[in-house]
Task: structure prediction
Amino acid sequence: MERRTIGAAALAVGAVGLGCMPMHWAYTASRRHGEQSLRTVHAALDVGATLLDTADMYGPFTNELLVGRVLRERRQDAFVSTKVGLLVGDRHVVAHGRPGYVRRACDASLRRLQTDVIDLYQLHCADPEVPVEETWGAMAELVGAGKVRALGVCALGAHGAGAGSASTDTTARGGRWRGAARSTGLGEVPYPGPGPGGQVRPQPGAGSGGAGQGFSMGVRGDATAFPTSATFPAGGAFPAGAAASGPTGGSFPHAHAGTIRQLERIQQVFPVSTVQAELSVWSPEALDRLLPWCEARGVGFLAAMPLGNGFLSGTLTPGQGFEPDDIRARHPRFTAEMMAANQPVVSGLRRIAARHGAGTTPAQVALAWVLAQGRHVVAVPGTKRVEWAVENAGAAGLALSARDLDEIRELPPAKGSWD
Result:
């Protein structure tokens, strides 16, 4: 597989990685099979998908344990990325960024992963009660101690509160999600389960349950750090004149404005090697400012959810339904109506795949589009199945033509959002 060198630490990884989250978190529990997932990780490494993306919260902890079983045998073949910053309790997930906790969490991850060094340690979510520089400084100390090679940030769901928004603090968020908050004194919002990559997505108007788990997310104090939750706008859903053009013809505001401000702050403490954020044909918001920010500074970009939670693979049927513990059961783009309405997006990818010959799939076209956004971009599709891990890896060898890219640009904007 093509390898890409990303970040200040010159990290060399396969152009397509493996998101390990679906093996233990956010998707249907009845379809989780440990040995199958283990084979999937091995298969990904076999085809050059060297970046294994996990987190301590997935399970919690069980996903790191599974990846650790692979690393024990094949450490030299793998580039391991894990995350810190979200603490999973009995009924809550809370941001936790105090330096002492970061150090302990890193040591625990190292034990579970059965390795003496983490290649990339990502801040999953900043703690609004702790200055982000303190958390980042503690993470930088881990690099100095030889426990971590490079640091990254997850900006999943970190869209601004609106076009031209000056902040992404809890006040702005509270205004958008009014009616969803619980009166707990912590500003908690109903937690329908972690989204792909582990981001927290509130479900406006929902009760205190969600995902069949009853989780809620603690948002404490004035959130002067990376947002803990977000809406996911559809193309064309914002006021005229306040948006940039999306690759599928839609529009979106200056997304990730708050994230960029925070990145500028922590860059003064220690170099950011990677930023992980959602990027796909139907969620292109990062193209506006975040991707260019990374490219200009030599920061790698890890594209999360590049297959749109599986929709862009063309393997899902409108109205098929999802089990209650699957995040897509509450995702507004996965209602029967919206899945049917967004079929033209998949049809367009399928047409392009057909031009590239037998065996090329819509998923590979969608991933190749992500990779075409820059040499600093690595796609991190998640799966727990061997055949899909192998298929996804094949996208690294698919070169899209100018015609292909133009057709994708002209696809209708995706319908349905978290608003």
